[in-house]
Amino acid sequence: MKRMQNTQQPANINLKFNEGLKRRYRAEKNFQRMGIGAIAIALTFLAFLFISIISKGYTAFQQTYIQIEVDFEPSYFTSENLSAADYPGLVKASLRKMFPEVKERREKRRLYGLVSNSAAFTLYDMVKENPNIIGTTRQVWVLADDDVDMMVKGHYDRSIPEADRRVKDNQLAWIDTLEQNNKLKKKFNTIFFSAGDSREPEQAGIWGAVRGSFYTLLLTLALSFPIGVAAAIYLEEFAPNNVWTDIIEININNLAAVPSIIFGLLGLAIFINFWGMPRSTPIVGGLVLTLMTLPTIIIAARASLKSVPPSIREAALGIGASKIQMVTHHVLPLALPGMLTGTIIGMAQALGETAPLLMIGMVAFIVDVPGSFTDPSTVLPVQIYLWADSPERAFTEKTSAAIMILLGFLVLMNGAAVYLRKKFEIKW
After folding, report:
1. Same domain, 37 and 97
2. How many domains in the chain?
């Protein structure tokens, strides 16, 4: 009996062990399924975000143009100053010539509304470039109004009642006539990439915001990278281990988690109110973003320095190098790829920031493209914010298109960080 009990006891233990092992395997598989499901959900939402943005914004890369026949009659040029000519009158006369049946004043206003008010500036540029065209007749492609552009692109529904449409029935008939006569077509929207902001959607572009972002990030990089690397080298290689160093490290880690709008308030209080620097300029924006990105760069640089094996330091000191020579000639070159990666990530974070720049006035409506660090300007995220708040339907597609451009820059910057890490990474 005792032998039978002894043989049954190991069998029961093995059975319990196998059951526990199976439970652990099932739990592991369930955990893997949960992880795969979480990744799938995240990718689904990300794909939905990209599809939604692209579907709304890709049409902004094309713009509708209308061809008009302009008779540059000398009677419109009564002054020797070419800028004083009646260019809007030339545009209106051309439209009336194309649709002579339009007689009523209200209908004429609607007819004139088919083209953008930039058409007059197009004619002025032509005359300024070649004054000899006065007295001749030319075929000129001019920008269509934003409502006409939205209708041609299919963003407005023709079937709804006329009272609920921005484009009226007679305007629809004129648009159809222009299409049938090949006097209306869509072209690549160069204005979107070459112009600054505008109250008129068809004339608005991102070039001013891109230039403002470039100047702001250039100043941020020029200040934050050397200061951040120098601070990291001192804290990691030269600073004594005492209470003050611990306080500095704690504050750096805390600053990395401070909301970005706090840095905007700090910049408003110090750089603008105390120092009297000009509002809404890249120089102030660069200083604010430098304060914001410094903790990130310092933490990344210190992590890169820590990854260098102590044997490198010991070998350099062993052959007679001073401590500064050891750091600059041996440790820093090996840690530099990681520092560059952290810096690029910090710059990508700065590129997408809006809140701190709103506090220093970069939310202002800026038409001119900035030419220096002290010119009034805005940045791409703030431009997106401004367009998203505009009531015109045409700004919706421009908002999505600008988001696509911003996402493209962020992907390139993060891709560059990954490439640098993979290319120069050293595994010890």
Report:
1. no
2. 3
- Position 200 in a domain: no
Token match 């660090």: residue?
A: 373
46 and 107 share a domain? no
Question: What global pTM score does this model have?
Answer: 0.86
Find the helix or strand (DSSP H, E) in which 208 lies: helix 207-233
Question: In this predicted model, what pLDDT tens digit does every residue of 104-158 receive, in sequence order?
Answer: 999 999 999 999 999 999 999 999 999 899 889 999 999 999 999 999 998 888 8
The pLDDT of residue 428 is 60
Q: How does the average pLDDT of the chain come out, rounded?
A: 89
Residue 411 has pLDDT above 60, yes or no: yes
Structural domain including 7 reads 2-58
Distance of CA 247 to the CA centre of its chain: 36
Question: In degrees to the nearest 10, what's the CA dihedral of 242, 248, 250, 252?
Answer: -150
User: Cα–Cα distance between 332 and 237 in angstroms, integer?
Assistant: 11
- Cα(101)–Cα(378) distance, integer angstroms: 46
Which runs of consecutive H residues, i.e. helices, occur in 2-63? Answer: 2-57
Residues 104, 147, single domain; the answer is yes
Give the whole-angstrom CA distance, residue 94 versus residue 4.
Answer: 111
Beta-bridge mates of residue 184: 66
| Cα separation, 198 vs 205, whole angstroms | 8
Are residues 218 and 154 both part of a single domain? no
Choosing from 151, 175, 195, the residue where a domain stops is 195
pLDDT at 76 over 90: no
Q: Do residues 122 and 10 both lie within one domain?
A: no
